[in-house]
Write a structure and sequence with these properties.
This protein has 13 helices and seven strands. The strands form two sheets. It has a five-stranded mixed β-sheet. A two-stranded antiparallel ribbon has the order 1-5. A hairpin with a 2-residue loop joins strand 6 and strand 7. Helix 1 runs antiparallel to helix 2, helix 1 packs across helix 4 and helix 3 crosses helix 4. It is elongated and about 95 Å long. The two termini are 54 Å apart.
Length: 350
């Protein structure tokens, strides 16, 4: 292990040696000589051959030469420590390389280098992530590490899959009244409390996206591993939008549009108010005030209120969650299915 660790260290310090060698050429000659020896040893290890003991002893003697003269009794324990550190260095480097490969594969297949918590990866797409519970001990963490590899390999075929929005039995809210038969069908999954979803919606509206496609809006309240909702009042809003859609689809579209595009008298976005300030009662009152202003009668509002609490709406939300998390294996939203592809992350105007 000493010669392998030596090669790793020599490879890392090679950049600094190259700079120093500009002023002291002899340093580079000594460095390349040592690196060649280390590489020769490493290559033999790869081929399951025995390394030259001479190089291993050279490394140890170089590190322990001064101690041999002053404290000869220290040589043996220090030699054992060097062997131990060499093993640690090799293990850490191998783990780092595997983690880097896993992260790159995860970005390619899942859109995030962090499989468990996608939004924690700054290299991935901008999303509101559907997170899994964090491991609480080393055994769980080790198991999760291998599980993530499994999720990545399972997702590789998905990269080459053709997605058809019509193949998924979503409960959705149609735009254009579902009458745009000549337009391509698109599934647009969003959470009313997700700021990325809000920006995507605004971009889509500005670009005329909803006029170009037959969009099926799928309100989806993100639940974390412990089944708590990621954003305050998202569940309530999703329930009311599905209930309102049954009475009059325009009522549902109105609520979505107001949450994503409008501000209150204080200049704060309604999404922010629902996420941070409104209690359950205040959120309900605000939604129903919008319905009233849109012309909904007392009877319609009561029907929507009762439907929002019903088992029917609960089943619709459960069905959508099953499709999103298990069939599509979505790790974050907004997610759009269009043109045969699954797009996760911020939708940008083009």
């Amino acid at each position: 292990m000493v010669c392998i660790a030596a090669f790793i260290i020599l490879a890392i310090v090679g950049v600094f040696v190259a700079i120093v060698s500009i002023f002291k050429p002899k340093v580079w000659k000594s460095y390349t000589k040592a690196l060649k020896k280390a590489w020769g040893c490493l290559w033999k290890k790869v081929r399951l051959q025995k390394c030259e003991t001479g190089f291993k002893e050279d490394v140890k003697n170089t590190l322990l030469s001064r101690i041999m003269l002053k404290h000869p009794k220290w040589v043996k324990p220090l030699s054992i420590i060097i062997e131990g550190l060499s093993i640690v260095i090799v293990v850490v480097v191998v783990w780092a390389i595997l983690t880097a490969i896993k992260s790159l594969l995860a970005i390619w297949t899942l859109g995030s280098c962090n499989v468990t918590k996608p939004s924690a990866c700054s290299l991935g797409a901008e999303v509101c992530s559907i997170d899994e519970s964090e491991p609480t001990n080393i055994l769980e963490a080790t198991g999760r590490w291998f599980t993530e590899w499994g999720e990545i390999f399972e997702a590789i075929p998905e990269k080459f899959k053709t997605y058809d929005a019509n193949n998924y039995d979503f409960n959705y809210i149609p735009i254009n009244g579902g009458e745009a038969k000549d337009l391509s069908a698109v599934v647009d999954i969003f959470d009313p409390g997700c700021s990325v979803c809000m920006i995507s919606y605004r971009n889509q509206k500005e670009a005329g996206f909803f006029d170009k496609y037959n969009v099926h809006l799928v309100p989806f309240a993100i639940q974390d591993a412990n089944n708590t909702y990621k954003f305050k009042n998202s569940e309530l809003i999703v329930r009311y939008t599905f209930a309102a859609e049954q009475v009059k689809p325009d009522y549902a579209l109105l609520m979505i549009d107001k949450i994503f595009t409008e501000k209150n008298s204080e200049g704060l976005s309604y999404q922010n108010k629902f996420n941070e300030d409104y209690s359950d009662e205040e959120a309900t009152s605000k939604l129903e005030s919008w319905l009233k202003a849109a012309g909904a009668s007392k009877e319609e509002i009561k029907k929507i209120r009762d439907l929002a609490k019903s088992e029917e709406i609960t089943n619709k939300m459960s069905q959508n969650r099953q499709i999103v998390e298990n069939e599509l294996k979505v790790k974050g939203i907004p997610t759009i299915i269009m043109d045969g592809k699954k797009h996760t992350g911020l939708w940008k105007s083009v």
